[in-house]
Design goal:
The complex is a heterodimer of chains A (542) and B (162).
Chain A (H helix, E strand, L loop, with lengths): L12 H28 L1 H27 L2 E5 L2 E6 L4 E7 L3 E7 L2 H5 L2 E8 L9 E7 H21 L22 H4 L11 E4 L2 H9 L2 H24 L3 H8 L2 H27 L3 E4 L3 E6 L5 E6 L3 E8 L1 H5 L2 E8 L13 E9 H11 L10 E2 L5 H30 L3 H32 L1 E5 L2 E7 L3 E7 L5 E7 H6 L1 E10 L2 E11 H11 L13 E2 L4
Helix pairs in contact in A: 1-2, 6-9, 7-8, 7-9, 12-13
Chain B lengths: L14 H27 L7 H28 L1 E4 L3 E6 L3 E8 L3 E8 L1 H6 L1 E8 L2 E9 H14 L9
Antiparallel strand pairs in B: 1-2, 2-3, 4-5, 5-6
Helix pairs in contact in B: 1-2
The chains are: A alpha+beta (542), B alpha+beta (162).
């Protein structure tokens, strides 16, 4: 597409951008000038002024270049944007893929009757994916917005293969769901029919809080902090904690410490319980609505279409007790009033393992059942263990060996010199054993399975986690193989989904290469139909 | 493992030059810092093997990233734009095969920095909701054609389902 067929933005853009950028830079200039003036007086002031002027000229020059190289236009069903002089970029955004269009005018732009058109696409993560056209006259901006919306509607309508367009993101800033908005919800909707409800009782929430990481982290933080204070007191000698430590009896201090920890843990539990107090989740036709909180009642409404993944979690203490929790990853940008910025929300704060699937069946039948999973092969075990254990052993060696070596160079007491090698060996052995154990558990926890339209991945070590992602919610899928994996017939599966506006990555390490290839064929739209097991289970090859 | 889906297209051979220039640029600052350090090692009273080791390190870095890596990367890189998906294969020690379905592609850019421009090459960026995939270093015309082709293929609608 030749530049000549596309439009420029308004020339005043250069002025608007220059002022905006300079405004951000000017604070820095003022600071520099102030330092110079205080330091050296008149001559320095001239220097600083010159610097400001040069800065302004450079910014104006760059703004002019940016403007001069910028072109945009709607051609066929695409929005084309050509930009950049050093780093040139030509973007082609299918109208059907545009998630939202905003017209924005900052104060300075408004003075000139100009506005920017902001175009949201679903390209996640960096702000790079969001396109900005401006500044252009306000009426042109409104017209462009209308063109983009009308164009996107018609191009969506044309492609009638599926009703679902890109409601993956359900942002609906363009009203594409307006046909059935009455039935669905949104602002001013009639009371939506309640299909299912789940409530967590107070005892359940207390158990959930007791087994969550919050109290544990609080207690550990206090223990760490406390030990620091005591070390300091021990070395300082003169301050009160030190005196107390020496004067009071040891058992008294231990009891005092335990009481303090109990209190801290109790407070953390109370905070968690009050946050989740009265948790309930309701399923209407197209939404999950959760409500919780004692002091502040929070309500979240998640359109089911925006759910990207369902995750069942059992942290270590919960796993021992046979308990699980569940949450969902959702996609969104948190910009239109209809959607929350929630990216991952609790769905079931706690439930018995045996009941969890039943609860999810009622709340989110679309995501059930989870595909049956099977383990990664036995030959993968050494891959799980070897590299992490060796690197942990090396870290332990360095962490103990280097300081001891340095101390021995400076001059170390004989007693320490005697046990120094033992300390190093013990650190290496204990660390290696712990990591090897954890990695063995990780190997045992790893699993995967495909059934019909979804993939399930299991992972964990002390805790266990299972995630289910629908085929149409996997943004891309990759299989990687190192030289050693290839020799052993293993491969690592990478699945990229979305959480919020960022990528959510899941992987299965060291699965059988033929299983990875089968999952790739299951995912690939271009794989021959005969290769594609439509609804058949794809459990790991034994 | 041989992939049934191994993509068929290789990159433009000039990409090796581009990668060499990019690596050289990226290495310039650390290399200068290391050489300065080696030069001052004598003044700091360090033993002779220290500057020798630093210079050896510099040579190893430059040889690896400018001489060895680009041809290997080039040999590994494969891409293909099919009717319903984009496939990429890349990697040095770990080879990664990626499938990006057309229905997941949100939009597509071509992008060209100064080094690529001097060689007449352009990258194609393919965006999904979860981020960007890059097909590097195609000729300018080819990149533009490919961008338009992917944009057209990506217009098909979603297949739904949770």
């Amino acid at each position: 597409m030749a530049d000549s067929e596309l439009k420029r933005t308004h020339p005043l853009t250069v002025a608007v951008r220059t002022v905006a950028t300079f405004g951000q830079a000017v604070a820095g200039f003022i600071w520099l000038a102030a330092v110079a003036v205080i330091g050296k007086g008149g001559l320095a002031f001239l220097g600083a002024a010159a610097l400001v002027i040069v800065g302004a000229v450079v910014i104006a020059g760059i703004s002019w270049l940016n403007w001069a190289f910028f072109r945009y236009g709607i051609v066929d069903d695409d929005l084309l944007i050509h930009e950049g002089w050093l780093y040139k970029k030509q973007r082609s955004i299918p109208l059907a893929r545009i998630q939202g269009v905003d017209v924005r005018a900052k104060l300075l732009s408004r003075l000139f009757g100009l506005a920017d058109v902001m175009i949201q696409t679903a390209g996640g993560g960096s702000g790079e994916a969001e396109a900005r056209i401006g500044a252009i006259p306000l009426h042109e901006a409104e017209a462009l917005r209308a063109d983009l919306i009308v164009g996107r509607r018609s191009s969506v309508a044309e492609a009638t293969k599926a009703v679902d367009a890109d409601t993956v993101f359900g942002a609906d800033p363009l009203g594409r769901l307006s046909d059935f908005r009455g039935a669905l919800g949104g602002v001013g909707r009639p009371e939506a029919a309640l299909l299912a409800e789940y409530k967590a009782s107070l005892p359940q929430l207390i158990v959930a809080a007791l087994t969550s990481n919050g109290p544990l982290i609080a207690v550990l933080a206090v223990v760490g902090f406390g030990s620091q204070i005591f070390e300091f007191a021990g070395s300082g000698g003169a301050d009160t904690a030190g005196q107390l430590a020496r004067s009071a009896s040891i058992p008294f201090l231990i009891v005092l410490g335990l009481l303090a920890l109990l209190m801290i843990g109790g407070i953390a539990v109370a905070v968690t319980v009050s946050r989740d107090f009265g948790f309930s989740v309701r399923r209407t036709r197209d939404r999950l609505e959760t409500e919780a909180g004692l002091l502040e009642r929070r309500m979240t409404s998640v359109p089911v279409r925006r759910i990207q993944a369902v995750i069942i979690e059992a942290t270590w203490p919960r796993r021992i007790l046979g308990l699980q929790s569940a949450r969902v990853n959702t996609a969104g940008f948190g910009k239109s009033e209809d959607q929350q910025s929630t990216t991952s929300s609790a769905l079931v704060p706690i439930a018995r393992k045996a009941e969890m699937h039943g609860v999810l069946d009622r709340l989110l039948p679309e995501a059930m059942p989870f595909p049956r999973t099977g383990p990664v092969p036995r030959r993968a075990l050494r891959f799980y263990i070897l590299v992490p254990t060796l690197s942990a052993a090396l870290m332990a060696l360095l962490a103990t060996g280097v300081p001891l070596f340095v101390v021995s160079m400076i001059g170390m007491p004989d007693a320490l010199a005697l046990i120094a090698p033992l300390i190093v060996v013990a650190a290496v052995v204990v660390t290696s054993a712990a990591v090897a154990g954890a990695r063995t558990l990780a190997w045992r926890s790893s699993g995967f399975g495909v059934s019909g339209g979804a993939l399930a991945i299991e992972y964990g070590a002390l805790g266990r986690y299972a995630v289910r992602v629908g085929r149409s919610r996997i943004q891309s899928l990759a299989i990687s193989q190192s030289f050693f994996q290839r020799r052993a017939g293993l491969a690592t599966l990478h699945v990229v989904s979305v959480s919020g506006s960022a990528a959510a990555r899941f992987r299965v390490r060291h699965m059988a290469a033929e299983d990875a290839a089968r999952i790739e064929r299951w995912y690939s739209p271009d794989a021959a139909p005969s290769d594609t097991p439509s609804a058949a289970d794809l459990s790991p090859a034994s | 493992m041989t992939h049934l889906g191994t993509p068929i297209n290789v990159l433009d051979p000039r990409v090796k030059t581009a990668w060499r220039m990019q690596s050289a640029l990226a290495l310039a600052v650390p290399v200068v810092a290391e050489l300065v350090f080696a030069g001052f090692a004598g003044l700091l009273g360090l033993p002779v093997w220290v500057p020798v080791a630093v210079v050896a390190l510099v040579i190893a870095e430059v040889v690896t990233s400018v001489v060895i890596v680009p041809p290997v990367r080039y040999r590994r890189w494969r891409w293909e734009v099919r009717d319903e998906e984009v496939r990429l294969q890349e990697g040095l020690l770990i080879v990664t095969n990626t499938v990006v379905p057309m229905v997941r592609i949100q939009h597509v850019d071509t992008a060209q920095g100064p080094i690529m421009r001097s060689l007449g090459l352009t990258d194609v960026h393919v965006w999904t909701a979860a981020g960007k995939h890059v097909i590097p270093a195609l000729t300018n015309e080819h990149a533009a054609q490919l961008r338009d082709r992917i944009a057209t293929l990506a217009r098909v609608t979603d297949d739904g389902g949770l």
